[in-house]
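User: My notes are a mess, but here's the protein and magnesium ion's SMILES. Can you give me a structure?
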Amino acid sequence: MEISSFFSTRDLNAWFGKTLAVRAVNMSFAENTVSAIIGPSGCGKSTFLRCLNRLHEEVPGARVNGTVLLENKNIYSKDVDPVELRRQIGMVFQKPNPFPAFSVFDNVAVGLKLAGIRKSTILKDAVERSLRMAALWDEVKDKLNDAGTSLSGGQQQRLCIARALAVEPRVLLMDEPTSALDPISTAKIEELVSELKKAVTIIIVTHNMQQAARISDQTAFFLLGDLIEYGATSQLFTAPKDNRTERYITGRFG
Amino acid sequence: MIRSKSHKDIHFADRFFAGTLQAIAWGVPLLLVFIAIFLTWKSLPTIRLFGFSFLTSQTWDPVQDQFGALPVVYGTLVSSFLAVLLAAPISIGVALFLTELAPSWLARPVGFLVEMLAAIPSVVYGLWGIFVLAPLLRTTVQPALAKSLGHFPLFEGPPLGVGMMAAGVILAIMIIPTIATLSREVFLAIPAIQRENALALGATRWEMMQIAVLKTARSGILGAIILGLGRALGETMAVTMLIGNRAEISASLLAPGQTMSSLLANEYAEASGELHLSALLEVGLLLFLVTFIINALARLFVWRSTLGKSPR
Ligand SMILES: Nc1ncnc2c1ncn2[C@@H]1O[C@H](COP(=O)(O)OP(=O)(O)OP(=O)(O)O)[C@@H](O)[C@H]1O
Ligand SMILES: [Mg+2]
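Assistant: No problem, the inputs look usable. Here's the predicted complex:
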């Protein structure tokens, strides 16, 4: 039944030392959809997300077991190079984090350069395309040589989105991308997410349930490392199956 | 009543301590100014007599009362730059290893040992240099260099062991802790998220170090190197023991030389005439100015890269 699924996890466990932070999670994500992950602080949302691009294993003492399938290929199998993989599964973090020593242009181009692309015409085109996709081109087209950190917080976050998009990933992981931003920047990024799903599959962690309801097709609710419920967003928010989900979305714990 | 009295006392104590601290705080820069004035005043005889040619003349002859500082300025700069050239890549490598590669059970003790290298007295480095480094250079390294690169003026001449090269190498070893420890601090100040960003974009570990660590820390690394340079410029004892102590300019690194500080250490005790003493103090003034400027520059760079940017 799930053979056709685009991106999925099987019995995914993640540890920090002896602490099990994500417990036997099974999820699947259809192509060109937005999936939101909600849940109280410390329930393992970020950890789960970081297992999907194999960033979790870079933390000293951290460990993963289980299966993550990208188009039926286990990304944890021995012949997969995590460096190559991370080009296919991009990530945007909570705090906007352009490389401080890099210009706007170089921030966007860095992933392509890492992939070995040197030709300046290709880089220029890709940078413009990515900045347009991130709805930032018009604001920065005259300051491509300024430091990336000279932009406003909201612009910096869209710069980070452009940077992740430049290598044309299949999947984009976003870990609370708007929690450090003002309402206007947040609205811009939400709009962007709905636009971007035509090109990439998006998995977004958020603390903002209205945001999850607005932008996602599916929503997952995590609690203490367990996936409690996962389903169509409209259904999960209006008629949750699990009463823990209901208590969380109605604000009665968490 | 009692309360108001004790209040007064507290205020008095406050003012007293504030005043004392302020005096001390002003005292330190004043001391610097006094040292500079003292050195200038004491070297007035040679400043008057030789003027600018003190800096350009190559003759240092106390018997004839002829004094030119060019050979020792040259010796100081060459030995120090050689030291930086050798020490900088090693130190940055050590700092990268300690912050990016080594597990913490290894990074802690190794980092501590590197810091301890800075605590070894200069004269001990000098002794080690005389008994281990110089013989090694004389019997192995320098003959090999002469054989392969001997036609370059840089490596001409007989292998003596002691000389400019020995001084440069010992200085390099002595400034590695300075550069490595400071670079490590700068690297540690870079948030982990910066590194994860690079990895998430498809960087290998080495590429991550280049993008997220070395590039970000550029001015801090430069500051660390300049601080190391400042230490090398002023270093005296080990250099005096290893440089060969001849105030001559030679293109070859194998030849003996002399630095400003080793000249002072060698001649100050037996300085006879007024002019000789004045010349030595003028060399001291030069050294003071050079190290002061170099250190100020280094602080500026380190400060810019660790505090000047908003921590993210
Ligand atoms: N570097 C780490 N070392 C050890 N334990 C960690 C580390 N990072 C997270 N944890 C633990 O793993 C669990 C899950 O953390 P995680 O960051 O995934 O939560 P989260 O759901 O993203 O929370 P938040 O909403 O606050 O971001 C928590 O109990 C946390 O204490
Ligand atoms: Mg989190």
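The longest strand of chain A covers residues 19-29.
User: Great, I'll file this with my notes.
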